[in-house]
Design goal:
Blueprint lengths: L16 H11 L5 H21 L4 E2 L11 H4 L3 E8 L2 E5 L2 E5 L2 E10 L6 H14 L2 E2 L1 E4 L2 H5 L14 H21 L4 E6 L1 H4 L6 H6 L4 H15 L8 E6 L15 H10 L4 E5 L19 E7 L9 H11 L8 E5 L14 H19 L1
Parallel strand pairs: 1-6, 7-8, 8-9, 9-10, 10-11, 11-12
Antiparallel strand pairs: 2-5, 3-4
């Protein structure tokens, strides 16, 4: 399997000022959406060039056509809406900050009436092809549609039976994945926050508040994701990024992967897992023992949350530690998360971002050749 690459990238990149200015003008009604799209596309070309200059063989569009890592995708699903905000205590090294991402609710039957991420990929692919890079498309996990509202967030008249709800949600994702494949996508990444959130006992109260059990919910979500990727062609690589929250250098969850590893790594039909291992909050590498078959662990040892550059020797030692639990050939290296999951981005510069990506490439080359 050529993907994931030994030096890989997660998704979002810091947005240039041209996009921030264009977004402000669009929100103020001063420019049409088409103009905004064209400005973003010009920036995507720059993002691809940046990734190539760092030595990567893979690229994303930096998520430049999005204002938020999941909202733009999810709001295009027919039948869903955003209501209010779920107050979450994001953590920083200086203390907590409050951020309230929207709650997703289901108002009527779910369907894919229009492209969800397809247009973003269609825009990226020719740019990536011209640069000689493999384009990777990131999409939010289907669990996002359910987790914040639970049963109460799903209209009972539309879905008296939750099994039908999960069937329809998986079908929406299968249709989008099929469309991406038809457009030439061979490398897809599902961005998943809720399995990592279930690693943190402090967040189990929310799970119980939506009427779910933390353990049985894992099984429900594993089945949902497996149904979502059920029809994937053999030459489509599907990876999953396990994210503990990423907003302006802040995070949500802490805790090692052990509480979810057996279900997530052992039962989900995913080719590779991008795992956040940049701090002690992530625990040790022992949960990697549950990665069965040929599944790959992409170690997110290089943080995207602060500018300080990691030591290459320290990265090599950590990779060696991980290889005690999974063979070295089934390991790879990446940033811990994207650099700008929300439009404001994390607290570092584009130069910092480039140095981090270059470090990943250099380290991977020295470890794997």
């Amino acid at each position: 399997m050529p993907m994931p690459f030994k030096a890989d990238v997660v998704g979002s990149l810091l947005r240039p000022q041209s996009i921030l200015d264009a977004r402000a003008q669009f929100n103020a009604g001063k420019i049409p959406r088409g103009t905004l799209w064209d400005i973003e596309t010009a920036a995507v070309a720059d993002a691809v060039a940046l990734q190539k200059s760092c030595g990567l063989k893979v690229c994303t569009d930096g998520e430049y056509h999005r204002r938020h890592w999941f909202m733009d995708f999810v709001e295009r699903i027919e039948g869903v809406a955003f209501e209010g905000g779920l107050k979450i205590a994001f953590q920083t090294e200086e203390g907590a900050i409050e951020f309230a991402p929207p709650v997703v609710v289901t108002k009527r039957k779910l369907s894919r009436a229009r492209p969800l991420a397809l247009n973003d990929f269609v825009d990226l692919k020719p740019i990536a092809d011209k640069a000689g890079l493999t384009p990777k498309q990131a999409i939010p996990s289907p669990t996002l549609v359910h987790f914040r509202g639970g049963r109460a967030g799903v209209d009972a008249a539309a879905y008296p039976d939750m099994a039908e709800y999960f069937d329809d949600l998986a079908r929406v994702y299968r249709e989008e994945i099929a469309a991406l494949y038809a457009a030439g996508c061979r490398y897809l990444q599902i961005d998943e926050t809720n399995f990592p959130f279930l690693c943190d006992p402090k967040l189990h109260d929310h799970v119980r508040a939506i009427g779910e059990d933390p353990l049985s919910l894992q099984k429900t979500y594993a089945k949902l994701i497996n149904e979502s990727v059920r029809d994937k062609p053999a030459d489509l690589t599907i990876a999953m990024h396990m994210c503990r929250g990423n907003h302006e250098s802040a995070w949500v969850a802490s805790g090692g992967y052990e509480p979810v590893a057996e279900v997530a790594f052992g039962e989900m039909n995913i080719d590779a897992f991008f795992l956040e291992y940049d701090t002690d909050r992530a625990g040790d590498f022992k949960p990697l023992r549950f990665l069965n078959g040929k599944k790959v662990a992409v170690l997110g040892l290089v943080t995207s949350k602060k500018a300080q550059l990691e030591s290459k020797d320290a990265l090599k030692r950590r990779i060696e530690e991980a290889s005690a639990h999974i063979p070295l050939e089934r390991l790879a290296l990446s940033p811990q998360c994207g650099f700008a999951s929300t439009i404001g981005g994390n607290r570092l510069t584009v130069d910092d971002e480039m140095r981090k990506l270059e470090l990943i490439v250099e380290t991977a080359r020295e470890v794997w050749g």
